[in-house]
Specification:
The structure holds two protein chains of two kinds.
Chain A: H1 6-15, H2 22-42, H3 76-79, E1 86-87, E2 90-91
Antiparallel strand pairs in A: 1-2
Chain B: H1 5-14, H2 19-37, E1 40-43, E2 61-65, H3 92-99, E3 103-108, E4 128-129, E5 132-136, H4 142-150, E6 155-160, H5 166-172, E7 175-178, E8 198-203, H6 206-216, E9 246-250, H7 251-254, H8 264-282, E10 286-290, H9 294-315, H10 333-344, H11 347-360, H12 365-389, E11 392-396, H13 418-421, H14 424-429, E12 433-441, E13 444-452, H15 457-469
Helix pairs in contact in B: 4-5, 9-11, 9-12
Chain lengths: ~100, ~475
């Protein structure tokens, strides 16, 4: 397990494409210290490792997948209405391949 | 607009008021409330009347939390990352209401993407409590709670991932209900933590909550976790026949002796709760105290943060400003996304993303994420065991009335009590859960919560309906306290 340090917080933030101020970094460390302390106690729970992790609220729902047939999809012109820069039916971004990185 | 849905429907039917008059009144009131409490992201000044039919919601205005997608209407999630976002489709729950003839008149402020519990982190600013503007509304359905309490309209939509309908309802003196997970489709609701997210409603009466949910709910091909509830008729099931029902409360949360240095507000709150139990007894409901492992209860807040942060980190990775949202600055795509996310997200969101990301790192998953999910199961199994004997668990909401705004930090602190956070168990298990007003402390509303087993919504609402009838808080409108 990697230790939760100020450097690691900045590294994780960078991977999430988020810049953190010094104060925000410290707040993450403070908040996580409490989570770490509380979840450490969980390891003392009897047979905790034998409990199946609960990933969803309901374990009894059924859902029938639809037939694998193409159906109506998002109209491109409507989907692009919220895009900052477009060219025809495409999203425009700075050149990626061979561009400046 | 200070009437119940039933009363407004009757007035519309007998012609004593028109739908357009109700719309005009709701819009006028929206502007007044916006000025005083900052409850709205958008007010729909061009909202129009609809035809009044036999549907109880036809012709009546309502509000929509701004994390529901509404076609051609700004839908921001109260985040700068979506400050200009206009969806091209409407959330199923909203569409069901539109189909019934209901009229949206505004979009309400929330804590950014629902990831807060104070009503202070929306990108348009703090929402103030209509009972006392120096206090918070709680969140995240802050604007919806404020507007319903202030009498803008009889109901507004909310969403609830931890307690985001039920806590602000309590602080604003109204009813907050989240039904069983999947009863209402989440299609078009901006996801926060998908395994915990519920749609629901804030109203001023239990009957109104039943009426609105009856219309919002239903299986939806766009949400694979929705289920067929066509045999459940919440409004028709209300009959106040609760004699012989059994409720329990958790001793470790409700006994004043459990707290080392209880505040006066906490003492009064727990006394109020005990009086509410006497009302239950007077209705012929059996009440018993039960004990739950304190270690399990103490783990609750951290388990919630671990699971919700992990799911949120994943859900919100699509917010890049490239395909939608304001473009960030930068000479390449990565820099543009970094700029968009750094400037767009509030500090609260950012730190929760980092915590979620750390928890999801392969080497940390077992210790944090999986253990949190294991405790989730332990808590849910404990509550399900209670539901084998009892119709519902009844508990006080929070540790007293609304907190002061200047004390708001919305950070998980060591003294965060299970009492403040127990409503999250309703999200862990997908349980139907309703908050109703139960009295006042220092002229500010406090509330109790009733939570039952999955699919037992009609029973839970009926118990709340019966209790509401014995207390003088049904359909109350906020009256701001005088500080002089």
């Amino acid at each position: 397990m990697s230790k939760f340090t100020s450097e690691l917080v900045d590294d994780l933030a960078a991977k999430l494409l988020i810049g953190l101020s010094h104060e925000e970094n410290e707040m993450v460390l403070d908040e996580f210290a409490i989570i770490d302390e509380n979840l450490s106690k969980v390891e003392d729970f009897e047979n905790i490792k034998n409990i199946e992790p609960m990933t969803h609220c309901l374990d009894d729902f059924t859902f029938t997948l639809r037939e694998d047939v193409a159906s109506e999809s998002i109209p491109i012109d409507e989907a692009l209405k919220n895009c900052g820069k477009t060219e025809g039916r495409e999203v425009e971004v700075p050149k990626v391949v061979g561009g400046e990185n | 607009m200070d009437k119940t849905i039933e009363e407004l429907h009757e007035m519309l039917k007998n012609g004593s008021v028109s739908s357009q008059e109700l719309v005009n009144e709701a819009i006028k009131k929206s502007h007044e409330i916006q000025e005083k409490y900052n409850a709205f992201v958008t007010i729909l000044d061009d909202a129009k009347e609809t035809k009044v039919t036999d549907n109880l919601l036809s012709g009546i205005p309502f509000g929509i939390k701004d994390n529901y997608s509404t076609k051609d209407i700004l839908s921001t999630g109260s985040s700068n990352t979506l400050k200009d976002y206009v969806p091209f489709y409407t959330a199923t729950a909203v569409q069901n209401l539109l189909d019934a003839g209901a009229i949206p008149v505004n979009k309400t402020v929330l804590d950014e993407f629902g990831m807060g519990g104070t009503g202070t982190t929306g990108h348009t600013g703090i929402v103030k409590n209509p009972w006392d503007s120096t206090r918070m509304t709680a969140g995240s359905s802050a604007g919806s709670a404020c507007a319903v309490a202030a009498g803008v309209y009889p109901y507004a939509l909310g969403s609830d991932t931890g307690d985001s309908i039920r806590k602000p309802a309590a602080f604003c003196g109204i009813v907050g209900y989240k039904p069983t997970y999947g009863m209402i489709s989440r299609y078009g609701l901006f996801p926060f933590a998908s395994s915990l997210d519920h749609c629901g409603v804030l109203t001023r009466s239990v009957a109104d909550a039943a009426i609105v949910t009856d219309t919002m709910k239903g299986i939806d091909e766009h949400d694979m976790t929705s289920w067929d509830s066509s045999d459940i008729h919440l409004y028709e099931s209300l009959n106040r026949e609760v004699k012989g029902k059994k409720l329990c409360y958790i001793k470790e949360l409700c006994d004043i002796e459990s707290y080392e240095n209880p505040t006066d507000e906490l003492k009064l709150h727990l006394e109020n709760f005990k009086k509410s139990l006497e009302i239950c007894s007077s209705l012929g409901i059996e009440i018993e105290a039960v004990s739950v492992d304190k270690k399990l209860l103490d783990a609750l807040p951290s388990v919630y943060v671990a699971i919700s942060c992990a799911e949120a980190t994943s859900n919100m990775s699509n917010l890049t400003g490239i395909i939608f949202g304001p473009r960030g600055e930068g000479k390449n795509v990565m820099e543009m996304m970094m700029d968009h996310r750094t400037k767009g997200f509030s500090p609260l969101i950012k730190r929760r993303f980092v915590i979620g990301s750390y928890i999801l790192q392969k080497e940390n998953q077992e210790r944090y994420f999986k253990n949190a999910q294991r405790v989730r199961r332990l808590l849910v199994d404990t509550w399900k065991k209670l539901f084998e004997t009892y119709d519902a668990v009844i508990l006080p909401v929070g540790s007293g009335p609304a907190k002061h705004l200047d004390g708001s930090k919305d950070i998980l602190t060591k003294d965060t009590a299970a009492l403040e956070e127990h409503l999250q168990i309703g999200n862990f298990g997908g349980f139907p859960s309703i908050t109703i007003p139960s009295g006042f402390i220092n002229k500010l509303p406090v509330a109790l919560n009733i939570t039952g087993n999955c699919y037992d919504d009609a029973n839970i609402l009926n118990i709340a309906y019966a209790m509401e009838s014995k207390m003088p808080y049904k359909n109350q409108i906020a009256k701001e306290v005088n500080h002089e």
